[in-house]
Design brief:
The chain has 19 helices and 32 strands. The protein is an alpha+beta fold and 868 residues long.
């Protein structure tokens, strides 16, 4: 499921270097003794702090720089000590260390189990004792960007197990140009600032300089303190959490280094909790609870940006014997806007925190599929989170390896392609749907990956039982394109067609063994500067407020069915209007955008003809989507909304073109595929079937198609289908007869009996205006007769206007032959024809002699005479 990349290996990157240094100290060629190396902390710049046992009975602390790949010795204790916490300031001039008493050795200090020191590194001439207490103490320097280069100062956070947090402001001074020493060592304790008075759980976010802590009064209250570049700090968020009263028996530290001398039994940890944020403006508070019977697990994701929380109850596997060593709490791993919940040996739940309405958009795996690919127990894995990278890192404390974790596109593609012959398709549909959305929305910027998905669509043309994969491909891809432009579109753009499927039971999209309860409207309060801050807090506050507003609005998400009534009215309009002109302007904007993207794409003949019906639908789609966004997201502004909408519809047409080109290349079709004289090959039949599925999928959602699509589809249809089936496609509305296609049909096909019947059948189904234009292109006696009738009628009507000649149609009851003698009519016709230009001079398929004979015959018929 995960694609792991080794970022740091303690043995490869550190141990080999340490052994060389110890060998140098001992003046031996190779040092083979154990060094007992331990990772102490990871700073926000990616550096790793570690300690090891020196050859002379000392304890050394070093740093691995992830950017230079070099190791550096920071400090050496003249005896072996137990380092439980460690942090280095950004300038690498101060080292904060917490030492704990080892029960097997002498006490560090009478009545003190923990000693916290602040040590100067350049030069090593001063050590200040900050705390000597009987509880655990964690230390962490602030690493803030600042422009105040002239002032030397560092700021240290001290976390005590007694439940308080102090902030130390350490002023530094330079001596002799390079020596950096503390300017006020004797006043450090007096100037310490109490940041938090009481907590039972605390988490440090070094990348964004945030402190999360949990307090319990009547209810559990999660608060966030933001540290600013000017060294001020302020509480910016408060959130009430629904946790059991006895959730934390001991104080919990998260992301504050690794204490190798303090271990707890898993059963003592009643609740495991962690906060994850994403720079695009999302915050997830994840926590899990244990049940007494250990047959199911409960975990909750509080989605602050969605103003809701989701509690999952998962049944654990009963086919395995109980193991006391099994990890009782899951790992929470952030991967972009996904949160992976992993319980080793049971399940892996990849939760979509953006498309959270339905479980089927989150991937749930069990059995052999539910593995991270790590060669260790999950209990030995610690999750490191970086908001800048958006993906979690997995640290294996035993082996000292750090892996960056990403979702594996190859594995997700395997889920799409798996047949699962032992299971009904409906049982695997939720997995396929979740995998498809993850590939399209989360990983959709990779063109090669999109090509593989289209190949899968070509190989699996028939719709699945519970969802239409072509509709999901189109809507999910457009959703990704939209929200990348503006986060506000997340709540108003469609991303799945399952909401439109009223005839499909939602039980087909349920995940077996997973039960979800959703609670709307969190009690989150943004305080102080949070509302006015730029960046993350501004986005999170905006997302939360927008969600609260849209939750009160019925149907805020745009659905293609909104266009249905307007489209039916538009098709009934026969005369041009101002509204039609407005829609045509929308269409021109969209097609001009497509032209800029497709200048080198001439493989499939699309966008090369006028298709008035599709042009009207394109313009109407732009209009309705623009109207929807202006209604629900007016803050974006009309100019930006217009640009977004034009881009959206242009990308829709581009996606369909891309699907057709991929199918064209897959089946190796050439120009001969467009020839009407030959029957279709198996490859052309496959492309025709794929085009029919695209047409079926877009038709039910009222999505426009590229101009030229219906012509291309009709060409494949007339080659691949029997003529009677082809006509049924026309009668049922699946196939639209375009002027381009019918013109080619009339000219390219010969007048064999079968083709003649087909042409007559098509002419019967054409509108009168189109029929008159098409008739001129068919070299056939009936066509010529029709042309002749129209020609004579036109001549007589013109003569009537010029000479006052009274001519009534043959269908009028008042017509009398005695008012129109044959000799007079013949003279009129000859006079008119002598003066008129011959309209058939440039039409090779019309026989002038035949027209004259036909005109005479029609005159006899109109006068009521029979030819003798």
């Amino acid at each position: 499921m995960l694609k792991l990349k080794l970022k740091f290996d303690l043995r490869r990157d550190v141990v080999s270097d340490i052994l060389r240094k110890e060998a140098s100290v001992c003046r031996v060629k190779e040092y083979t003794e154990a060094v007992d190396i331990c990772i102490l902390n990871t700073e926000n710049d990616g550096s790793v702090l570690y300690s090891w046992k020196g050859v002379t009975g000392t304890t050394r602390i070093g740093k691995y720089d992830s950017s230079t790949k070099h190791n550096k010795l920071l400090y050496t204790f003249d005896k072996q000590v137990c380092v439980s916490s460690c942090s280095l300031n950004k300038e690498e001039t101060l080292l904060a260390v917490s030492l704990v008493q080892n029960s097997r050795e002498e006490r560090l200090k009478p009545m003190s189990k923990c000693l916290t020191l602040l040590i100067e590194i350049h030069p090593i001439n001063n050590t200040k004792v900050l705390k000597a207490v009987d509880c655990r103490v964690k230390v962490q320097f602030l690493h803030q960007e600042t422009d105040r280069r002239s002032v030397l100062e560092s700021h240290l956070l001290l976390f005590a197990e007694d439940g308080y947090v102090d902030l130390y402001h350490v002023l530094l001074s330079k001596q002799e140009g390079y020596r950096v020493v503390m300017a006020n060592p004797e006043r450090l304790s007096k100037t310490a600032e109490r940041i938090v008075e009481d907590f039972c759980w605390v988490q440090w976010d070094g990348h964004m300089q945030r402190l999360y802590y949990l307090t319990l009064k009547e209810k559990f209250l999660l608060q966030c303190v933001q540290f600013f570049p000017n060294h001020n700090c302020e509480t910016v968020l408060e959130l009430l959490l629904d946790l059991p009263a006895n959730s934390f028996r001991t104080v919990k530290f998260v992301n504050l280094g690794f204490d190798h001398y303090h271990t707890e039994k898993p059963e003592q940890e009643l609740v495991r909790m962690q906060v994850f944020t994403n720079r695009i403006g999302s915050m997830c508070v994840c926590y899990s609870q244990l049940l007494k019977d250990e047959q199911e697990l409960i975990y909750t994701l509080v989605l602050v940006h969605k103003d809701c929380s989701k509690t999952f109850r998962v049944s654990l596997s009963n086919d395995k014997p109980p193991q006391k060593t099994t990890q009782l709490h899951p790992l929470f791993i952030p991967i972009g806007y996904y949160i992976l919940v992993y319980l080793q040996g049971n399940f892996l739940h990849c939760i979509n925190t953006r498309q959270q309405e339905m479980l089927c958009h989150s991937l749930f795996l069990t059995g052999h599929d539910a593995t991270l690919g790590l060669q260790c127990q999950a209990a030995d894995v610690t999750v490191l989170h970086s908001e800048e990278q958006c993906n979690g890192c997995l640290l294996q404390l035993v082996s000292g390896r750090i892996h960056t974790a990403q979702l594996s596109p190859a594995y997700l593609l395997q889920i799409l392609r798996s047949t699962r012959s032992k299971c009904p398709s409906s049982k695997t549909d939720p997995q396929r749907l979740a995998a498809l959305h993850c590939l399209l929305v989360y990983m959709g910027n990779d063109p090669n990956l999109e090509l593989k998905i289209i190949e899968w669509l070509c190989d699996n043309v028939n719709a699945f039982e519970s969802f239409d994969q072509i509709q999901e491909f189109i809507l999910a891809s457009l959703y990704r394109i939209g929200y990348e432009k503006s986060l506000g579109l997340d709540k108003v753009l469609p991303y799945s067609s399952v909401f439109e499927k009223k005839d499909i039971p939602l039980c087909l999209l349920e995940v077996p063994g997973v039960f979800c309860t959703t609670k709307q409207h969190l009690e989150a309060v943004f305080k102080g500067k949070a509302r006015g801050l730029q960046g993350f807090w501004s986005e999170l506050h905006l997302n939360t407020e927008r969600t609260k507003y849209l939750d009160t609005v019925p149907n805020p998400r745009y659905r293609s069915l909104h266009i249905q009534d307007d489209w039916q009215k538009l098709k009934s309009e026969k005369r041009p209007s101002s509204h039609m002109n407005h829609l045509e302007e929308n269409t021109k904007k969209v097609l001009s955008m497509v032209d800029t993207w497709c200048l080198d794409k001439k493989l499939v003949p699309l966008f090369q003809e006028e298709d008035h019906q599709q042009r009207a639908l394109i313009g109407l789609t732009v209009d309705k989507l623009r109207e929807h966004l202006n209604r629900y997201l007016p803050r974006l502004g009309k100019k930006k909304i217009d640009s977004l909408v034009v881009n959206y519809v242009a990308k829709l047409l581009e996606l369909i073109r891309h699907m057709l080109e991929s199918a064209w290349l897959k089946h190796k079709l050439g120009p001969c595929a467009l020839c009407l004289m030959k029957p279709g090959s198996p490859a052309e039949w496959s492309v025709f079937h794929f085009m029919f599925r695209i047409l079926e999928s877009t038709r039910s959602l009222y999505l426009p198609l590229p101009p030229g699509y219906h012509t291309l589809f009709a060409v494949f249809a007339v080659r691949c289908l029997p003529h009677h089936t082809f006509l049924q496609y026309i009668d049922h509305g699946f196939l639209q007869l375009t002027e381009t296609f019918v013109s080619r049909l009339m000219t390219d096909l010969d007048n064999s009996d079968a083709n003649e019947r087909l042409k007559f059948s098509i002419l019967k189904r054409l509108p009168e205006s189109l029929e008159q234009r098409i008739c001129h292109m068919w070299d056939h006696p009936v066509s010529s007769a029709s042309i002749s009738r129209d020609y004579v009628r036109t001549l007589l009507e013109k003569h009537n206007k010029n000479k006052g000649f009274a001519f009534n149609g043959r269908d009028e009851p008042g017509f009398r032959p005695e008012f129109l003698p044959l000799t007079y009519l013949a003279k009129v016709l000859s006079d008119v024809e002598a003066q008129a230009l011959n309209p058939f001079e440039e039409q090779e398929n019309v026989d002038a002699k035949f027209v004259e004979e036909t005109a005479l015959m029609q005159t006899w018929i109109l006068l009521g005479y029979e030819k003798k």
